[in-house]
Design goal:
Layout lengths: L1 H8 L14 H7 L3 H10 L4 H19 L8 H14 L3 H16 L11 H20 L6 H6 L5 H15 L1 H20 L3 H24 L59 H6 L14 E7 L5 E4 L5 E4 L34 H17 L5 E7 L3 E7 L1 E5 L6 E5 L2 H5 L2 H8 L5 E3 L8 E6 L8 H5 L2 H10 L4 E7 L4 E5 L6 E4 L6 H15 L5 E6 L23 H24 L5 H8 L10 E6 L2 H7 L1 H14 L5 E7 L9 H5 L3 E4 L5 H8 L12 E5 L7 E5 L4 H16 L1
Helix pairs in contact: 4-5, 4-6, 5-9, 7-9, 7-10, 9-10, 13-15, 18-25, 19-22, 21-22
C-alpha cells in the first residue's frame, strides 16, 4: 500500500526511466584510436629514438656518479641521489645501470642488433631485483632495519619493507633462504634456462664426482691402509704438527718401510706395551726449533745486540733477545699556576705497576713457538709495555743464508697468514682478548697486544705531571689541553680540544665513557679560570654530571630534562651566531685573533671558550631526532672558529644514533669496548674496538692519524672530583 501511495503522489509527466547507455558517437569522440598513436609516431622525427637513448645514457651516468657524491655540488643531483638511496639503498646502483642499459638497448636496433625480451623474462627480472633488495637489507647485519632504510643503506625502503614481511613472520634465516630461492628461480627464468637442463647438469656433475671418487679409491696405496696388528695411536697434539724432514732419515725409517711388531698377547694378564720403531717415534718428535715455554733460557751477561738489548741462549742453542722491564719513573713537571687554581695535590698519585720480566719473556717464547708450529719462523724484535697491555713486535721477515750459494736472502711471511692465527695465539697465551695491529703505523713490524695479568690504573695526576703534557702545554699554550691516558708503551698522551675540534665517545655500559668525561671536565677545571673556559653540561642519564652543579665554570645548571636540553642546544646555536657577528665586526678570523685584538684593557669583553658536554646523546636522538641532529650538526660544522667545542658520548653506537652527518663532522673519536665489529665500524670505520678489555681501555682516532691508537684512559675517583668542585664552590663564595 505504501508503494502504491508513493507512486500515486508522483506527477504523471515525470515517471522514472532506467539509465540509458551512452551513445556510440560520444564513445568514439572521447576514445583514442590506434591511428592516433600512429600519427604521433609519424610526427616524430626519425632521429627521436636516438635522442631518447642518449638522454637515458647520460641520465644513467649522472645518476651513477651522484651516488659517489661526484655531482654533490648541485642540489638537483643530491636530491635525486638521496631519493634513489632512500628507496633502493645499495640497489640504486642497479637502477642506474638499468637506465644506462635501457638507452643502449634503444640504440642496438640501429646497429642491426635486435633483442627480444618476452614479458615473462622482464617480469622475472623485476622480481629478482626486489629479491636482491630484500637480501641486501637482510645481510646488513643490523637489527635496526628501519634506521638502515632511512640512512639509505641495505635495500632501502623497498628492501626493508619486503624483508620485514617474511622476517617478521618466520625469522631472518627463513627470509634469507626464501629470497635466495626466489632470486635463483627468477634468474633462471630470465636467462631462459629450462628445468631439464638444470637436472641434466646435476646428474652429469654427480656422475663425474662418483667416477673421480672410485678412481682415487682404486689407486690408493695399500701400504697406507691400517694394519690390524698395530695398536691404534691417539692423534698428535698441537705441539706435534711439524714433522722432521723424512728425507734425512735412514731408508729403513722412511715411509713405506715395514716394521714388524710382536702381536699383543690376548691371554696375558698384563700385556706389555708394544715397541714402536724409530720411524713411529719420529712422528711424535717435537719440532726442531721447539722451545719449552717454561724455560726462557740462559742470559748471556755482557752480550747485547745492535739495539743494546740483552741476549739469551735458548735450550735449542739459538740466540734470542731478552727483554727487561723498566718501571715508568718520570720526573714530575708542573708549570706555573695561578694561585686561585686548585692544587694538583687534590688528585691522587698512583704508581703504575708493570708485569714482571719472567711473564714478558715467557710470552715471547710462547708467541715464537706457537707460530713455529704453523711453519712461521719469526722473531719478536721489541716489546712495548703499557699499564694494561703489552705489545710484542713481530717482524714478518728475517735474513737467512742460502745453504748452496752462501748468499744472504730475505725470507718473508704474509701478514694475513699471521693475523689469521689470532685465536691460536690467544689460546697459547691464555689471553682474555687478543688484538693484532697489522702493521704498526710507521714501523716495519706488526703488533700482538696481550693483556697483562695485573692491569694497572692510570691516575689523572700521573699524566698531568708527565713530561709530555708539560712540553705540549709550554708549546701550544692552549687552555683546552686535555690529558687522555697512556699508550701501549706507557707514554703519556694529551690532546688539544681546539685542534680536534670536537670529540665523539662511544662504548658499552661500564666501558669507561662517564669516567672519561669526568676526567676531561676535571682537567679543564684544574687548569682554567671561569672567565677562560665555560662549560655546558647536558646529562639525560641524570646521575653522571649532576655532581658538577654549582661550578662557576657552568653556564646554567646541569640539564637533565629532554625538553630543556633541546632548548639549550638551540641557545648554543644562537650564541654561535652572535659570536660570528662579533668576529665580523672586528675583522677577526677566529676567537684567538678576536681576544688578542681586544688586549688586556678590555679583558672583560673577551670571549671565553665554551665546551658542550652531552653524556648520552642516544636518548636525544630517539626522542627528538631531527632537532638534535640539526643542532649538533650545525654546531660541529661552524662552532670551531668561535671557540665552541662539542664532546658527545653514547652507549648505543648504531646508525640511527651516530648518523652520517654527525660522524662526518667529528674527526676525533674515542671507542671504548663494544659488543661487535659492526659497532666498531660505526665509530671508527674499522674493526678493533670489540677486542678491548673495558674499564678505560680505548682506541683513540686522531684527525690526522691513519689508524687508531690504543690507550688506557685516565681514572679520576669520585673523591677527587668532589675536592676540585668544593674548591671552586668556595672560590665562588669568596
Amino acid at each position: 500500500m505504501a508503494e502504491q501511495k508513493s507512486t500515486e503522489n508522483k506527477p504523471a509527466g515525470k515517471a522514472t526511466t532506467p539509465p540509458q547507455p551512452p551513445k556510440r558517437e560520444k564513445i568514439e569522440k572521447y576514445s583514442v584510436k590506434p591511428e592516433f598513436w600512429d600519427s604521433i609516431l609519424d610526427a616524430m622525427p626519425p632521429w627521436g629514438d636516438e635522442i631518447a637513448a642518449i638522454v637515458l645514457i647520460i641520465f644513467g651516468i649522472v645518476s651513477f656518479l651522484s651516488l659517489f657524491n661526484v655531482s654533490s655540488d648541485t642540489s638537483l643531483a643530491a636530491a635525486w641521489s638521496g631519493t634513489l638511496t632512500s628507496l633502493f639503498g645499495y640497489g640504486s646502483f642497479i637502477v642506474c645501470v638499468g637506465i644506462f642499459a635501457l638507452g643502449i638497448m634503444i640504440l642496438l636496433p640501429k646497429a642491426g642488433i635486435r633483442i627480444h625480451l618476452p614479458p615473462a623474462r622482464l617480469f622475472a627480472l623485476e622480481i629478482a631485483f626486489i629479491a636482491i633488495l630484500a637480501l641486501l637489507h637482510l645481510l646488513t647485519g643490523d637489527l635496526e632495519f628501519r634506521a638502515v632504510a632511512r640512512a639509505g643503506q641495505g635495500g632501502g625502503t623497498i628492501g626493508g619493507a619486503m624483508s620485514g614481511i617474511i622476517s617478521g613472520l618466520f625469522g631472518t634465516t627463513t627470509a634469507l633462504v626464501f629470497y635466495s630461492v626466489v632470486l635463483l628461480i627468477c634468474l633462471s627464468v630470465a636467462a631462459g634456462i629450462r628445468r631439464s637442463a638444470i637436472t641434466g647438469w646435476l646428474q652429469r656433475t654427480s656422475q663425474r664426482l662418483q667416477a673421480y671418487a672410485d678412481k682415487v679409491y682404486q689407486t690408493q696405496n695399500p701400504s697406507t691402509a691400517p694394519t690390524p696388528n698395530l695398536p691404534v695411536r691417539s692423534p698428535a697434539s698441537s705441539l706435534m704438527r711439524i714433522r722432521p724432514d723424512l728425507n734425512s732419515l735412514p731408508p729403513s725409517q722412511r715411509p713405506g718401510a715395514t716394521a714388524s711388531l710382536p702381536p699383543l698377547g690376548i691371554d696375558d694378564e698384563h700385556p706389555e706395551a708394544p715397541q714402536l720403531s724409530e720411524q713411529e717415534l719420529a712422528l711424535f718428535a717435537r719440532p726442531e726449533n721447539f722451545v719449552d715455554p717454561t724455560i726462557v733460557g740462559k742470559v748471556l751477561k755482557g752480550q747485547k745486540n745492535e739495539a743494546g738489548q740483552q741476549l739469551v741462549e735458548r735450550p735449542d742453542g739459538r740466540i734470542k733477545n731478552y727483554f727487561s722491564v723498566d718501571n715508568i719513573r718520570e720526573p714530575k713537571k708542573v708549570g706555573k699556576r695561578e694561585k686561585e687554581l686548585p692544587s694538583v695535590e687534590l688528585l691522587q698519585d698512583v704508581d703504575i705497576v708493570l708485569p714482571e720480566e719472567t711473564e714478558i719473556n715467557r710470552n715471547v717464547v710462547l708467541i715464537e713457538n706457537t707460530l713455529l708450529e704453523f711453519d712461521i719462523d719469526i722473531d719478536v724484535v721489541d716489546v712495548r709495555i703499557g699499564p694494561t697491555v703489552t705489545q710484542y713486535a713481530v717482524q714478518p721477515f728475517r735474513e737467512k743464508k742460502d745453504e748452496l750459494s752462501g748468499d744472504s736472502m730475505m725470507q718473508r711471511t704474509r701478514l694475513n697468514k699471521i693475523a689469521s692465527l689470532g685465536s691460536d695465539l690467544a689460546l697459547a697465551l691464555s689471553a682474555r682478548r687478543l688484538r693484532l695491529e697489522v702493521p704498526v703505523p710507521g714501523h716495519t713490524y706488526m703488533g700482538i697486544e696481550v693483556p697483562n695479568k695485573k692491569p694497572s690504573v692510570v691516575a689523572l695526576r700521573s699524566v698531568y705531571e708527565s713530561r709530555v703534557f708539560f712540553e705540549q702545554l709550554q708549546k701550544k699554550k692552549s687552555p683546552l689541553l686535555i690529558p687522555l691516558g697512556r699508550d701501549v708503551a706507557g707514554e703519556s698522551v694529551a690532546i688539544d680540544l681546539a685542534g680536534c675540534p670536537h670529540l665523539l665517545i662511544a662504548g658499552t655500559t661500564g666501558s669507561g665513557k662517564s669516567v672519561c668525561i669526568a676526567a676531561i671536565a676535571t682537567a679543564l677545571m684544574l687548569d682554567n679560570m671561569p672567565d677562560t673556559v665555560k662549560l655546558v653540561m647536558l646529562d639525560p642519564k641524570m646521575v653522571e654530571l649532576s655532581r658538577f652543579n654549582g661550578l662557576p665554570h657552568l653556564i646554567g645548571p646541569v640539564e637533565t630534562e629532554l625538553e630543556r636540553i633541546v632548548e639549550v642546544l638551540r641557545w648554543c646555536t644562537r650564541e654561535m651566531d652572535r659570536r660570528y657577528k662579533l668576529l665580523e665586526e672586528n675583522a677577526a678570523r677566529n676567537i684567538d685573533t678576536y681576544n688578542s685584538r681586544l688586549g688586556q684593557r678590555r679583558k672583560k669583553d673577551q670571549l671565553p671558550y665554551i665546551v658542550i658536554m652531552i653524556d648520552e646523546v642516544g636518548d636525544l636522538m630517539l626522542s627528538r631526532p631531527e632537532e638534535t641532529e640539526k643542532s649538533i650538526t650545525r654546531l660541529a660544522q661552524m662552532a670551531r672558529a668561535v671557540g665552541m667545542h662539542l664532546i658527545v658520548a653514547t652507549q648505543r653506537p648504531s646508525v640511527d644514533v651516530i648518523t652520517g652527518l654527525i660522524k662526518a663532522n667529528f674527526p676525533s673519536r674515542i671507542a671504548f669496548a663494544v659488543a661487535s665489529g659492526v659497532d666498531s665500524r660505526v665509530i671508527l670505520d674499522s674493526v678493533g674496538a670489540e677486542t678491548l678489555l673495558g674499564k678505560g681501555d680505548m682506541l683513540y682516532l686522531a684527525p690526522d692519524a691513519a689508524a687508531p691508537r690504543r690507550l688506557q684512559g685516565c681514572f679520576v675517583a669520585d673523591e677527587e672530583v668532589r675536592k676540585v668542585v668544593a674548591h671552586w664552590r668556595t672560590w665562588k663564595v669568596q
